[in-house]
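We modelled the chain as a single entity of 110 amino acids. Its sequence is:
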Amino acid sequence: MKLLTKSQEEKLIANHHLQEANNGEIEDMKVVAKIFNPYGRGTWYLSEYNPEDRIAFGVADLGYPEMGSIALWELEELKVPPFNMPLERDIHFPEDKYTLEECLEMCHGK
């Protein structure tokens, strides 16, 4: 399974361009995709993506949730033990429903 659908990638890129046009001042950007480790810790919520450097922006929760830049190519290459399996896209996560702040709060509320 690809980590992002073509539609999700297009939305993430559009969000990136929107943020650039507004000098990064849009604070209520909606999350487009959720990536997770099906075998353990690790969840990423993505709101934008720069295809030139393959860097996304979102919330990463590896036990200590934080907002920041995420190298999408690293997530695509990551294979997790014990079966050397890839990360997965949460196909049930609703696109454009939650802001990054709301996802960050959800992570802290676990």
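As a brief sanity check on the tokenised model: The beta strands are 33-36, 43-50, 55-61, 66-71, 79-80, 85-86, 88-89. The helical segments are 6-21, 72-77, 100-108.
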